[in-house]
Amino acid sequence: MLENKIAIVTGASRGIGRQIALTLAKEGAAVIVNYNGSMQRAQETVNAIQEAGGQAEAIQCDVSDFNGCKEFIDGVIKKYKKIDILVNNAGITRDNLLMKMSEEDFDAVLNTNLKGAFNCIKHVSRQMLRQKSGRIINISSVSGVMGNAGQANYSASKAGVIGLTKAAARELASRGITVNAIAPGFVNTEMTAVLSDSVKEAATAQIPLKRFGEAQEIADMAAFLASEKAAYITGQVISVDGGMAM
To answer: Angle at CA 156, nearest 5°, toward 214 and 96?
Structure first.
């Protein structure tokens, strides 16, 4: 489905990003596994793709760094001559109540989750405009749709990603580039594994389907949006949240 496509997945060393990278590779894309901190974990993702017969390489970049992001994407274009798919998945949390949240924690989350997505879209869009094709998929969150107590920074960043998605979709559509967002709910990853049983139970009670999602369910939606089957879908926010934000 994605044969001969070049895909960048940011924050792909673990969790949802790793699963998206594995799934795009399984569909035939060559995947750039972006990471910021853990080279070992990123390489494990690459190894898993290669062992399954796919093509991938790991490249370090802090997406919140505007110039570093440009160098990263320029390097990919120089090597592969094109970029067909960009998945803006890189994200961090620094949870706290609004009254207790530090300026540093607010800025760090906005810089990675929202500015990082802007940086990548800006630097990728020129190449996609030249190609007159491309798929940009931004990972938002149910927190950006509904808000979530204790996550003012995270909710703001993910709501911002939704606005960025719609603005970019309008700007790029005339050149055949689609821009969509996925808003996952609670998903079984390392990020949610640390939650207490009581928090998990309270969260599950809010979900009509009465369970957490799986990373593969998010990855399958990303693969669909990256494919030709989604060529007439742009500017949309697709919730994969078990009905939580309906």
So the answer is: 80
pLDDT score, position 4? 96
pLDDT tens for residues 2-21? 999 999 999 999 999 999 99
Paired tokens of 227: 């494919």
The residue length of the chain stands at 246
pLDDT digits (tens, 9 = 90+) for 135-157: 999 999 999 999 999 999 999 99
Predicted pLDDT of residue 191: 79
Token duo for residue 19: 């699963």
The residues annotated as belonging to the active site are: 154
82 burial class (0-12, 13-18, 19+ CB within 10 angstroms)? middle
Q: How far is CA 229 from the centre of its chain?
A: 20
Helix H segments across the chain?
A: 15-26, 39-51, 66-80, 103-110, 116-131, 142-146, 152-172, 190-193, 197-205, 215-226
CA distances (Å), 51 to each of 25, 44, 56, in order?
11, 10, 10
d(CA 203, CA 224): 27
Which residue in 30, 84, 92 sits closest to 64, CA to CA?
A: 92
Q: What is the pLDDT of residues 53-102, one digit of tens each?
A: 999 999 999 999 999 999 999 999 999 999 999 999 999 999 999 999 99
